[in-house]
Amino acid sequence: MKRKIHPADGGDAVPSLDDAVVYLDLETTGAAAGVDRITEIGWVEHRGGREIDRGAQLVNPQQPIPPIIQTLTGIDDAMVATAPPFAEVAPALRARLAGKLLVAHNVRFDHGFLRQEFARLGVDLQVAVLCTVRLSRRLYPHERRHNLDSVISRHGLRVDGPRHRALADAVVLADFVAAARAELGDAVVVEAARKLVTVPPAARPADGLGLDALPDTPGVYLFLGARGEALYVGKSVNLRSRVFAHFAPGTKVAKDLRLAQQVADVRWFETVGELGALLLEAKLVRQHAPIMNRLLRDGDDLATWFWDATAGVAPQLQSAAQLDVAAVDHLYGLFPTRTQALRALRGLADAHGLCLKRTGLEPAGRGPCFAHQLHRCRGACVGAEPAVAHDLRLAQALHGLRLATWPFRGRVGLVERDPLRDRTAIHVVDRWCWLGTVERAEDLDAPDGPLARDDAMPAFDVDTWKLLSRWLKHHRHEIEVIDLPRAPADAPV
């Protein structure tokens, strides 16, 4: 049974290589269809297997062409300065594509750019497409490489003009199909192509999501479904680029395609920098539990060892939900399950000759531990090794698992700045707990500010600890740290 395509495309059945075909190639300012733009369109049109037209059109992208792209394509800003913008060439291009099969090498890239450009004009472009990368793989499965240079070399194709120019590459695609038909037979190639033809869905930015207002600044975005349910939370140093990438087909996987099709609303929150975006992302994921995120792990699922070397007692296995922020300096390891935590400590005990009773792996009591009976324990359980000496070796064994300790004397403000936008954020943090963010120092003590209640400490959050400890390790030099002492106990509220 033949698949149907959009009626506006001029037909009911999916076109084949023996029908009307447009071999097409685009040059662009970059690889992200959501933010980059087309600089050149090249096409070769066939009907009934014979060429009837070819041509190329420079397009003003209305943005600078990066130097590396200029070097690759040979197209510079001066060449496109007087060229028409896409809006002016769109009507003729849409008419050329209507009812035809669009053939391109890595067609998701070229179709994705066309779809986004038309969507900016409020046009719903749907057209049947065929990827010559996939066709090459289907016809020549024994070949290792299927990029365009490899196809040219394999079939001895002639390139009329410089590579990475739209018309020259479009001609190569038509010549590749002709060469394959000559080598393998018309029926084989046409049937292989028929099985690979698809009709991608329409572009979502035209669906009224309001994405044109997205800023190119750091921040967090939230995708909502038709019933207002949270689908996905993400963050980026460039909100516009990242959100548009979800709707661009060039890098789609099945999960991303399902997500793009379900999004009914997009909300975003600008931040001053990446640290603010990381903190807010973690908060929103926990708050909304979006169904398509790889959810940050619930603290209840994690196990850790609590051990205060000065208390003279064995390590205690705890879940993250039991943790007090004051205990963080005495925690060793974060494990997905209690079983893995026990296995890790037992491995250390075996490697360092530790006592199973002094490590808490066996109940305390009279008599030797099982490891001592196997001559693997130095005898702390029977008085043969002083407890202090044993615990010193235990501390050395556990050192590699110790969680990062709070590196400041107390509560601090992590100051993040964006000089280009003249914005500042002060992230208030106390013992790995994020208490809030303000943009002005005078707002720290506001009635609803992060310092309003000195006695209010949130529960220890593993994910916030992870991102803050990692950030401070690698980016400490990028931010200013200011001390924020606690208010006196008798200070007026």
Name the CATH superfamily assignment of the largest domain.
Ribonuclease H-like superfamily/Ribonuclease H
**Head-to-tail CA distance between termini:** 75 Å
Biggest sheet character:
5 strands, mixed
The CATH topology assignment of the largest domain is Nucleotidyltransferase, domain 5
- Give the mean pLDDT: 84
Low-confidence stretches: 1-12, 487-493
Tally of DSSP β-strands: 15
Number of helices: 15
Please state the second-level CATH architecture of the largest domain.
2-Layer Sandwich
Strands across the major sheet, in which order? 3-2-1-4-5
Helix content: 25-40%
Structural class by helix and strand composition: alpha+beta
Overall spatial form? elongated
Which sequence of SSEs, written as H and E, runs from N to C? Answer: EEEHHHEHEHHHHEEHHEHEEEHHHEEEHE
User: What is the number of domains?
Assistant: 4
Please give the CATH class of the largest domain: Alpha Beta
Radius of gyration: 31 Å
The proportion of residues in beta strands is 15-25%
Short description:
With 493 residues, the protein is an alpha+beta fold. Helix content is 33%, strand content 19%.
Can you offer a commentary on this structure?
The structure is a single chain. With 493 residues, this protein is α+β, with helices and mostly antiparallel strands. It folds into four domains: 198 residues, Ribonuclease H-like superfamily/Ribonuclease H (Nucleotidyltransferase, domain 5); 80 residues, GIY-YIG endonuclease, CATH 3.40.1440; 102 residues, no CATH class; 72 residues, no CATH class. 33% of the residues lie in helices and 19% in strands. The protein has 15 helices and 15 strands. The protein has a five-stranded mixed β-sheet with strand order 3-2-1-4-5, sandwiched between helices. It has a four-stranded antiparallel β-sheet with strand order 14-13-12-15, with helices on one face. Helix 7 packs across helix 8 and helix 12 crosses helix 14. The radius of gyration is 31 Å and the shape is elongated. The N terminus and C terminus are likely disordered.
